[in-house]
Design a protein that fits this description.
CATH architecture of the largest domain: Orthogonal Bundle
Structural class: mainly alpha
Distance between the termini: 31 Å
Number of domains: 2
Largest sheet: none
Number of strands: 0
Strand content: under 5%
CATH class of the largest domain: Mainly Alpha
CATH topology of the largest domain: 434 Repressor (Amino-terminal Domain)
Order of helices and strands: HHHHHHHHH
Length: 151
């Protein structure tokens, strides 16, 4: 199946008039995300931009390929928010990308007033994408590791 990237759809939307909204939705329905697929498509788009394959992502996040695939496709709901954060960190997502992924998955965004989230935000803002290094930062500050509960 031919796939349109989000950028292509964005360009189409710039040219679409309000009275053409129905035609846009009908003509592009196979590319539009539904609730379950929105997370998958978003993850794929970001990873494609970064040139990373899903298999590489699962390994970097510390998940078995089967489990990681089920999380990405939302066939199995993540036991906790950390699993989604791990996938995003392993994919070298920026803070806004992580927060969007968390929202699409149904979890709260990283929150600056939460001490643990603050440490994760600091790591991401300093381009620390090694989950074990993030664990060191968390443990040094008396917080729970992100790599607990291996998948």
């Amino acid at each position: 199946m031919e796939k349109k990237k989000t950028d292509e759809l964005d360009e189409l939307l710039k040219k679409t008039k309000p009275e053409e909204a129905g035609a846009y939705l009908r003509d592009n329905s196979k590319y539009l995300a539904n609730g379950e697929k929105a997370f998958y498509y978003y993850m794929k788009d970001v990873l494609d931009e970064k040139g990373m394959k899903l298999k590489e992502l699962y390994v970097a996040a510390g998940f078995a390929e089967g489990y990681g695939g089920k999380l990405i496709r939302m066939e199995k709901h993540a036991k906790n928010r950390d699993h989604i954060i791990r996938l995003c960190v392993a994919g070298h997502f920026k803070l806004d990308e992580i927060n969007r992924a968390l929202k699409l998955y149904g979890y709260s965004e990283l929150y600056a007033k939460d001490p643990r989230d603050a440490c994760i935000i600091i790591a991401i803002n300093n381009r620390i994408y090694d989950l074990y290094r993030i664990d060191e930062i968390l443990v040094q500050n008396g917080l729970d590791r992100i790599m607990e509960g291996e998948g």
